[in-house]
Amino acid sequence: MRDWQKETEQRVEWIKNIVNESHAKGIIFGNSGGKDSALVGILCKKACENTLGIIMPCQSNRNYTIDKVDGENLAQKFGIECQLVDVTPIKEAMMSVLPDVEMPLALANMNPRIRMTVLYAIAQQKGYLVAGTGNRSEITMGYFTKWGDGGCDLNPIADLTCTEALDYLRWLGAPAEITEKAPSAGLWDDQTDEQEMGITYADLDRYIMTGEGDEKTKQKVESTRARTHHKRSMPQWYGNIKY
Question: Does the global pTM surpass 0.90?
Fold first, then answer.
């Protein structure tokens, strides 16, 4: 069993150091009502009193119902300041001037990019840092939107697989409504992470941690990891200049 108490102390200290070194006044994160968001919010609140979670529904019905309620319940239980910003009008305005963008995934990926723009706008206004919420399993598979939810100033759970994050969240006493629901990016109704990635988190995490798995799992993870390498890299800049 992981020593979550010790890890909490280490992660909280890590967050505090970054905030202090940056001379930031607080931390902001996207409060999606999901597991990773909840874990990041709890850790940031333990490290910094000025922690703000922004709930940002966008078109999907679940954003306005289950996700919103779960995000509000988390904030209430752990004393996290919470704010609602409905970004659907922003998405609709963008779609109105982008008539040629029809690919479903391209349209769906607009959501996290809009949300990150909102987070950074508020963060700059308040002098806060933006906390990311991606776990190791998602990062390995490139299961995040480039320059969307992949954009942040710090990420205190990037080393934790989905399985580990869930165990940690349960240890922290997060609401069961959050820990028991199927992981989903919430980009559209009935979406689930596992269905979209084509692999279960159990198989993925086992392969990440032990290198074990059937041939289908190995091929799926390695091919996806290679295909999404660009998401985990800084932009390629021409010239061998030291900045």
Answer: yes
Task: For each of the domains in the chain, give its residue range(s) and CATH number, in order of start.
Answer: 4-232 (3.40.50.620)
- Scanning the chain, the segments in alpha helix (DSSP H) are 4-22, 35-47, 61-64, 66-78, 88-97, 104-108, 110-126, 136-141, 162-172, 176-179, 193-197, 201-210, 215-227
For 38-87, the pLDDT digits (tens) are 999 999 999 999 999 999 999 989 899 999 999 999 999 999 999 999 99
Contact 131, 40 (CB under 8 A): yes
235 DSSP 8-state letter: P
Are 119 and 147 spatial neighbours (Cβ–Cβ below 8 Å)? no
For residues 222 and 239, is the Cβ–Cβ distance under 8 A?
no
